[in-house]
Amino acid sequence: QSLPQQKLLTWLSVLECVEVFAEMGTARVWGEMGRWTIIVLIQLAKAILRLLLLLWYKAGIQTSPPIVPLNREQQQPLHPQDMEDNSSGKDQTYVGRRSSRVVRSLQNTPSLQSRHWGSPQQREESQSRRAEEMNQPPTPLGLQETIAESIYVTRPLLHLLSLGVWGQRSWKPWLLSAVLDISSLSLLSDLKDLNRRERAELRRRTILLLYYLLRSPFYDRYSEGRILLLLRLLADYVPGVGFVTR
Fold first, then answer.
1. Which has fewest Cβ within 10 Å: 11, 85, 143, 178?
2. Which one GO biological process term can you cite for this protein (predicted)?
3. Domain boundaries, the chain
4. pTM assigned to the model
5. d(CA 60, CA 197)
6. What is the C-alpha separation between 227 and 244, in angstroms, rounded?
7. Using an 8 Å Cβ cutoff, are 162 and 176 in contact?
């Protein structure tokens, strides 16, 4: 990735980390009008950054969070002594004569910080596999897929606009947002040869469709009563969970 693209991803990650705090803080200081103002500004900034990544830098299907968190345990480098042993060609394993089982050689046992249960070959293979997955380029998007990703990126702005036009109690913003989400996923479903991160992102978006059951006005009219009834039944008839459900 180029340096400008990395900066865009960094700013996008910062916005996603602080948006809830900014919304709550603004609502406490400036009230409801300030809260909706900061929501619109943050969503507008996020949409602009994502459209730049999509259309200018050809970033493909964008994941959430934009920068994948680093797993420090999996990415832990080899100990310097282990690297010296590898470079000097020392044999780190011993193969049993009868069992053919591969075990680590006692002369080349690494330090406690870099010790693991697998064989050195398994560790090297897993590290190389993870490196290949992280360094895979994004899948090129055609016109249909670019439109689908653009719909997903601009959906929050269209939802906010519809809330301003029809109000928070109307079904139209809820229906519009759901139609845009389903349309985006349907258009992206024809895309083949996705890498691991992109497949995980599409699965995440599909699972997030269940949140529409918890969004107003659907929640206020249908889900709330059933959820409260279920929690009440659990509190009354299932021992040990009453404190949590109440």
1. 143
2. peroxisome organization
3. 1-59, 139-237
4. 0.76
5. 11
6. 14
7. yes
